[in-house]
Amino acid sequence: MNDSVELFDGANDHSRLLSSLAGSHSGETLPLATSNQIMLRFNAKSGQSARGFHFVYQAVPRTSDSQCSSVPEPRYGRRLGSEFSAGSVVRFECSPGYLLKGSSAIQCQAMPGALAQWNATAPTCIVPCSGNLTERRGTVLSPGFPEPYPNSLNCLWRIHVSEGAGIQIQVITFATEHNWDSLEIYDGGDMTAPKLGSFSGTTAPALLNSTSNQLLLHFQSDISVVAAGFHLEYKSLFELEQEDGVKMSPVKRLNFKPPEKLSELVEQLLRAEIHSDVCVAGPRCPAPTS
């Protein structure tokens, strides 16, 4: 028999059962109690130990025909709105790297002859085991982060930024089961692209740079033993330019002839569109425009 936690809507186990939990749960909002007391009963019957549990509770106003129950903030996210009267709308969003599971907005509705109630349950924030990431900046987390990732994962994340741009990945934390659970990063949109690396254990470079505007991340875990997982941040780099086989920093360059007099330089700068880098005439600069 599994170990379990039971929560009762009152001072003893003769009260209404609010919830019975066993196995793995994270970030859930349990049903609201109707009284000012809750009893929690923990049953350990399996003979095996596990990580245990962590509950957070708070006192909230009782509901009425014009007031819904208080809505907590989702774990790894936030609630937008603190008004819980009938007709009010509360919205939710997740921290970077997490995905909202459930409704992004819920509304308190008045019910004829009954207590006001929300039209949907509050959502949770989870780490997806896949994704297509197209923003200029983003976060990739191992499923379950910051808790250890599960067994038997096969996850794919595709990062695709603007044409001509590059991608830089910064490794914030990295820990997987050495030699068995690995993260492979491909310098392109699929697994036929060159591999930037395959990383396992606690060894991973601080920075990784693509040569194209796409990256594919493939994470696999085996059937036993897990670890803390990983936290990666990526950002889009400016357009990459190729000259003489050398990758150059992607900036739009300003080209002008070296002036003989300061007044000529000032005149050229006033006529030109000024950018962050200036390329003075030389072998690596395109021919100056008139």
UniProtKB/TrEMBL annotation:
Cited PROSITE patterns: CUB (PS01180), SUSHI (PS50923)
Keyword annotations? Disulfide bond, Repeat, Sushi
Q: Which SMART domains match?
A: CCP (SM00032), CUB (SM00042)
Lineage, top-rank taxon, reads Eukaryota
Q: Which residues form the CUB domain?
A: 129-237
Residues covered by the Sushi domain: 66-127
**SUPFAM superfamilies from the entry?**
Complement control module/SCR domain, Spermadhesin, CUB domain
Q: Which InterPro entries match?
A: CUB_dom, Sperma_CUB_dom_sf, Sushi/SCR/CCP_sf, Sushi_SCR_CCP_dom
PANTHER family membership: CUB DOMAIN-CONTAINING PROTEIN (PTHR24251:SF37), OVOCHYMASE-RELATED (PTHR24251)
The protein in question is named CUB and sushi domain-containing protein 1
Native source organism of the sequence: Takifugu flavidus
